[in-house]
Structures are given as C-alpha cells and as structure tokens.
Amino acid sequence: MSEAPDPAEERAPTRIRTDVLTPWAAQAMLGLLDRDPRGIAEGDALPLGWHWLYFRHPCRGSRLARDGHEVRGDFMPDVDLPRRMWAGGTLRSLHPVSLGEAARLRSKILTVTEKRGRSGRLVFVTVGHTVLQGDRRCVEEEQVIVYRGSAPPSAASSAGTGGDGAAGRESGGRASPAPEWSETFLPTTVTLFQFSALTYNGHRIHYDHPYVTQEEGYPGLLVHGPLTALLLLDAAQRHSPRPVRQFRYRALAPLFVDQPIVLVGQAAPAPAAESGPRKERVVQALGPSGEVAMGGWVS
C-alpha cells in the first residue's frame, strides 16, 4: 500500500516554465568564458548547469523588491529577512539536454528551514528543479537559497554566503594541498554585467556599487554564486576524461569583482577501508588569500 501524500508537500508552491533552448545564450556564455561562441550549436548537448541561462520570464518593475529580486510571496516564500544569497545545491544529469528544442522547467519549494547562526537568524529555502524535454527527465536539481538579516560592513565583508560558516567548518576553510589541476579566472565588472543579463538577474549586489557597499555592507561588487558554480563545473568537466554526471557544491565565502578566482581540483580522499581509484573528485574556488569560497564534488 502506498503512503498518503504529505499535506504540506501537496500545498508547496509549484511553477512550470517553458522555453525553446536556442543556442544564443549558450554561445554568449562561451564568449563570457573567453572561448569561441561557435563552439556550441543547435543539436549539441547543453552543458550541465547551463539551463540557468534559460527559462527566464519578464517581470513588471512594480513587482521588484528593493534588492532587485522579484518580490517574495508569489513563488519564493515571504521571508522577512533582507539579504538573499545562493548557498549551494546539487545537479544531476539524467539525459542530455538538446539545444534547439523546447523544454520545460518544473520547480517546487521543497523545504523552508529556520536556523540561528553567529550573525543571527537565517532562513534556508530549498527549491527542487527538473528540466524536461518531451517525456524525458534530463536534469534534476536541488538549489538552496539563504536569507539573512542586515549586517554591519565589518561583518558582511567577512561572512560566508553559505550559512554562517557552517559549511566552511565542514571543508576546513582552506584549499586542499597539491591540486591535480589549477586555473585562474578574473571576474570584471563586464563579466558580472554579462552574467546578470544572461540570467536575467536583477540582484543589485552584482552591479550597484553604492547599494552593495552602503546598504549591504560589502567592500565591493559580489560575484554571482551560480557563476562561481558554473566556473567550477566547467573546469572540472574539461579536466575529466568522462562526462560529469553529478555536481554538489556549497558557497562558503563571498568573492568580489576584479579579484582573481583560482579553480582547483583533485581526487577525493578515499576512506581507509577502500582501495582503487575514487569516482568522486573535489573542486574548489579559492579567493585571493587562498580561502575556499566555494567547495564542490563532481562524479
């Protein structure tokens, strides 16, 4: 006998968006990465995570909050905390997403969890996404957004984006020794503008210097959490002999414009009881002082 559905889960907001995945956005992303935009075309498989460039929808100016995001309460819950950050998530590839074809993005609020950290109250919202083409489930994703209270400049400039340092303690907060590969990416103001435009992201922390420094207390424009995740995933894929099927990541600390991001990767340490090659690999995005700003695992 099947279990009865959870009434709370049944009431959870669900949203479906449709789009034709024309190559232009993916080609523009290649250009942002300083690669030939002609490297991807109709009929090719969309790289894992790049569905973030699609399924955008217009929003009336009167429906935007002060931070530039769409007002809460329609789909995202009406959390009464001002600062929103992308905290982490998981991406799983089930079937290639084909460019040039129509697709659907089905989204649902999975959990809303309140915690208290060193900087005060935190609310974590986990959103589940599924990308479908026809009857095929192509990508499954869990995305975690954290809402935080206001913070003075000294606190905001050092606070991690992924939940008050809890994730930083899990990873140790420092880069793993002797990475197998390493490369550097410099995010400029143009980079942040282009990625905001590609993802239809109006969050002012990525382009409005007076707002991010005077109202949110950061020392400069912040690099998008999803951009950092895509940089890690792209680098991991290029250094892997096989396609990446799963990517887990967690944001630990902010990254800022005009400061180089070092991307590193290596095999995950094997438990003492195991032998042979590891299927999972550790990837990290390092800030200018060598701190781990985002930690991830690919398999």
Describe the structure.
There is one protein chain. With 299 residues, the protein is an alpha+beta fold. The chain has one domain: Thiol Ester Dehydrase, Chain A, CATH 3.10.129. The chain contains seven helices and ten strands. The longest helix is centred in the C-terminal third of the chain and has 14 residues, at 225-238. It is globular and about 45 Å long. The protein starts with 6 loop residues before the first helix and ends with a strand.
Question: Can I get a quick summary?
Answer:
This protein is an alpha+beta fold and 299 residues long. Helix content is 19%, strand content 31%.
Task: Give the key terms.
ten-stranded antiparallel sheet, 19% helix, 299 residues, disordered N terminus, alpha+beta, 7 helices, Thiol Ester Dehydrase, Chain A
What topology emerges from the helices and strands here?
Blueprint: H1 7-11, E1 14-20, H2 24-32, E2 83-93, E3 102-117, E4 120-133, E5 136-148, H3 153-158, H4 166-171, E6 181-185, H5 189-198, H6 209-215, H7 225-238, E7 246-251, E8 261-267, E9 281-286, E10 292-298
Antiparallel strand pairs: 1-3, 2-5, 2-7, 3-4, 4-5, 6-8, 7-10, 8-9, 9-10
Helix pairs in contact: 2-5
The tally of structural domains comes to: 1
Please state the structural category: alpha+beta
| Gyration radius, rounded | 19 Å
Portion of residues in beta strands equals: 25-35%
Q: Which regions are unreliable across 5 or more consecutive residues at pLDDT < 50? A: 1-10, 152-172
Helix content: 10-25%
Would you list the SSEs in sequence order as H and E? HEHEEEEHHEHHHEEEE
Identify the strand order in the major beta sheet.
Answer: 1-3-4-5-2-7-10-9-8-6
Number of helices: 7
Shape: globular
Second CATH tier, the architecture: Roll
Question: What gap, in angstroms, lies between the N and C termini?
Answer: 35 Å
The CATH topology turns out to be Thiol Ester Dehydrase, Chain A
Strand count: 10
Largest sheet: 10 strands, antiparallel
CATH superfamily label? Hotdog Thioesterase
CATH class: Alpha Beta
Q: Give the integer mean of the pLDDT values.
A: 87
